[in-house]
Amino acid sequence: MIGLLFGVAFITLLIQELFTRWKALKLREELGLSGPPADLFFGSRRYYNKVVSEKGLEGIPHIFGELEKEYGSTYGLYLGSYLEIMTTDPHIIKEVFISQFGNFIDRRNYGSNKVYPMLDGLLQVDHDGSYGVGWKEIRSTISVMFTSASMKKARMCQLECTIWMHATCHDLVDNLIDALQEKSRVHSGRIDAYAEYQAMTMDMIARCAIGQDLSCIKDRDNDFYRCARIFFSNMRYEKTRQLGAARKWTTILAARDQAADWNSDRVVYMEKVGTAMTILIMIELFVMIPVVWEVLKYLRPLTTYGRAERVLTRKLSTVIKQREKDRSAGIFRKLPDVIDLMLAENEKRELNGKTPFHHDVMVSNAWALFIAGYETTSSALSYASYLLAKHPEAHATLHEEVMSTFGSDQTIDYERVMKLPYLHAVFSEVLRMYPPVATLTGRTCIKNTIGGFPGIISMLLRETVIGGKIRVPVGVAVVAPVHTVMWSEQHFDRPTEFCPERFLNDKTASAWSATYLPFGIGPRNCVGARFAEMEFKTVLAAVIRQFAFELDPEHTDLKTIIGNVLLSPKNDELFIRIVERQPESDFESLKAEHVSAL
User: How far does Cα 380 stand from its chain's mean position?
Assistant: First the structure.
């Protein structure tokens, strides 16, 4: 009898779920949008699988470009039964991310992110926050550290070794140069630029954001560096490449009779297929059944990246608790980092009777800035080094600009390095071609409005209208695929070519606009954008002054993949060769050699 009741309940829930999904799949048509075919179970996921099967992991960044060609600039895409409106229309992007930002405050929040430390970190926290402190309050506290005035003050105080950004702009760069000098003398100067810049940016963000001196440039054997690399490398789609084998299991079985070695390899084949099928079923199940998404947050700590994440958050928690004790004892840092800013804000909030930042909220935001500040800039510097090695004329032009401004031994100061026109053009073009962040440009509709204005009709319809005609129901996300926007011929001439000059000729091209999105756009753009720009320019200027970049003969083609969030070098490596430069007196002859190589 009990079994019968369970059976009836299961069938009832299944029918209800299927009806709900069938109704959800009608929404795109009701909104007047087109898009790739979506089935009852997987939504549009099969299209992703098809692209990966045909083009490999490197084809993922081009998916939305192909969809744009077929369905136009704005279309609907289903992730399971969840509808997302994809758009490359700059007018709609501007409307969603700026003019109607109040209706689209929240980022997309998938199951595995609905848990500490993602849930209340600045990367993911919604307008309310799970502890009563929302996005706006956290942002206003943290953004103080990244203002131009704060960075300028730190840069001008380089003689004081304890100053907050001195590590970023002077001694850390010197440490990097020393490390590269040693490596330039072995293996024909072959280095993994990605790993070297990761060590540099981790040291930098650790000092500036959480007040820790890690010395990763000199010693990679510490938990922060090790766990951060594990975290990112195991979040990537590349790590689920077994899915490809799972999807081809029928092909393997069908061909077994033709395989001469089938009998001897049967066990090996079936073990591989069995493992892959298990992973496939789990992932596809999360897409098929929305309620299972909630289970993801409990599984996150059990994953490889979740375990690495836990080590980092525990260490950050210890740092914050110690800083609280120091402040209670009257010990304060001369210049504040993010932790100090949050603790100071807490003291003000308690005095004013406001909800203070919970300890987990502070850990979450220290973790978010540490992770984001470490990975994104290191990727950008790696891509820049590769592109300059591949384009000798741009390489020589940038070197000449740096040398004519700073010579061989002048300090690379904040004021001048931020104003170098060709360096800025290289910075802008690198981020256009290889924007590190790929998936945080989605915003979820949270308010019942029509055309941006609340009203009775909107309360009934529970939706917002964008572009004058496109209805966006509450809970539906509008996504601007960064790569598609910045790789579009409609927005940039010859978009596949590395051409820094495009940003010299058009002074507005690199403005953070609806067609240039490496840092996002609007009130919720990257809080550390200015910091990342200063870091990129300072490090690249210092390195190119000391070294020439060359392509490594074994790695002449750059291959990238998109993981959950980031565009990263495939296999977590990017090899180039560096050659230590001759004295300044030989600068002209070195320049001539690079130009003649064209």
Answer: 11
